[in-house]
Design a protein that fits this description.
The chain has 1 helix and 5 strands, in the order βαββββ. It is mostly beta strands. It has one domain. It has a 5-stranded antiparallel β-sheet.
């Protein structure tokens, strides 16, 4: 199954973070949303929430510690058995990328 990943916002549209993290940290950042599926099966009276969260980081020392990261997040509130379409969020390009 192929995932359709759609751009949500770019790194230049994250001004609310500029007072916490320098803008250069976010200049390569890109955010995407995508749809995937989750299969759920339980007793009829059970409701469940499922969270899948994946993070990746690279850190190195080059005149001080630096690095980059991504994270991928899916949340689903499930109330019935079977396959469910859910929306995920992927953030990439956070941090320093050497050329």
């Amino acid at each position: 199954m192929a995932y359709k990943i759609e751009p949500a916002i770019s790194g230049t549209t994250l001004p609310y973070l500029s007072h916490i993290i320098p803008p250069k940290y976010w200049r390569n950042a890109k955010c995407y949303t995508y749809t995937t599926v989750i299969y759920y099966e339980s007793e009829p009276f059970v409701n469940a929430s499922v969270v899948v969260w994946l993070e990746g980081r690279n850190n190195w020392f080059q005149m001080g510690w630096t690095g980059n990261e991504f994270d991928d997040y899916v949340f689903a509130r499930l109330t019935s058995n079977g396959w469910h379409n859910v929306t995920g969020k992927l953030k990439t390009g956070q941090g320093v990328y050497l050329k």
